[in-house]
Amino acid sequence: MGQIHTKKINSKQIVISLDNAGQRIDNFLIRYLGKIPKSRVYQMLRKGEVRINSGRIKQTYKLLEGDILRVPPVYLDQQKQTIPSSSLQQRILKSIIYEDESLIIINKPAGIVVHSGSRQSYGVIEAFRAMDDIYKKIELVHRLDKDTSGCLMLAKSIPILKQLHSAMYNHEIEKSYSALLAGRIVDKKITIDKPLRKTNINLGERMVTIAENGKSAMTKLSRERIFQSASLVNIKLITGRTHQIRVHTASIGHPVIGDIKYGNRVINREYKKQGLKRMFLHAKTLKLRSPVSKKFLTIDAPLEPVLCEFLERLTN
Q1: b/e per residue, 226-243, with b = 16+ CB within 10 A?
Q2: In the CATH scheme, what is the code of domain 163-315?
Q3: What is the pTM of this model?
Q4: In terms of C-beta density within 10 A (0-12 exposed, 13-18 middle, 19 or more buried), how is residue 169 classed?
Q5: Is 19 among the catalytic positions?
């Protein structure tokens, strides 16, 4: 084994500029510190090591122009610095389905995380930043689960990120998904309106449950096709909570097939024998106005060939 070299990054004070105003403190630190594990960033916030204007803040705090941010000294294990492989970089580059001077939309492959975490050295965002200087400032606008494929939006600057976050907050961006659900759905249209509560269980892993004291969440389902023991549905998100589709569909007895966290193990095993090796959930369409041209965009992400072929087998 090679020798581990530890590098100390000294304490710093940073005056927040207009470009970074409005960004959450946790997201700013993850971006600013780069190779520091996310778990260490959240530990610093919990322990009050990070200060804004000499006071403690929560991880949800949004930065203001002129804030004085104190970043504590941190240690970087240089042996653990990892760079996304060139094959992953090329795969992500080939997945771009829309790009302009302000944003990028990719058709994210299933099995790839959107950013590094406690169990992942790198993801989509790190792959982009490793490619070229033009992508160094790229930021995630929203997230997709590791095993969900489809439309993923990235902003090329913090001001564009803020514009897109504002548009999402005001329901000016429409997202729709395709999902294969267990069982035959009788109703053509279903609205699920159940509050969700998120709990961190260990090592950053999250579990979401339906709870009266949770955050409001609404999902609309439209049935497209019925198979012998499954239903293909189109899903429109009215809110965008963590694991919303997966928890909501499971709550009505029709979980997403292939979902190992909220789905049905017996059903998943049967469909795996038939050739479905992944969760059948795909972010198929994004509708929004371009932050630069203000033109209305409709971006469609084609289903992966393996999912198309599986649907053909179900049909036959």
Answers
A1: eeeebbbbbbebbeebeb
A2: 3.30.2350.10
A3: 0.79
A4: exposed
A5: no
Q: In this structure, are residues 174 and 286 in contact, taking their beta carbons and an 8 Å threshold?
A: yes
Spell 205-225 as b/e; 16+ CB within 10 A means b: eeebeeeeebeebbbbbebee
Both tokens assigned to 184: 């035959």
pLDDT attached to residue 35: 66
- Which two structure tokens, joined as six digits, stand for 168? 């999402």
pLDDT of amino acid 135: 86
- To the question of domain 6-79 being in CATH 3.10.290.10, the answer is yes
pLDDT at 1: 40
Report angle CA 77, 17, 156 to the nearest 5 degrees: 70
pLDDT of residue 155: 93
Per CATH, the architecture of 86-158 is what? 2-Layer Sandwich (3.30)
Question: Which one from 26, 67, 145, 147 is the annotated catalytic residue?
Answer: 145
Beta strands 281-289 and 149-155 are: parallel
By CB atoms closer than 10 A (0-12, 13-18, 19+), residue 125 is: buried
In the predicted model, residues of the chain with pLDDT beneath 70 are 1-9, 34-35, 76-82, 117-121, 201-205
Instruction: State which H helix or E strand residue 108 sits in.
Output: strand 103-108
User: What is the residue extent of each domain of the chain?
Assistant: 6-79, 86-158, 163-315
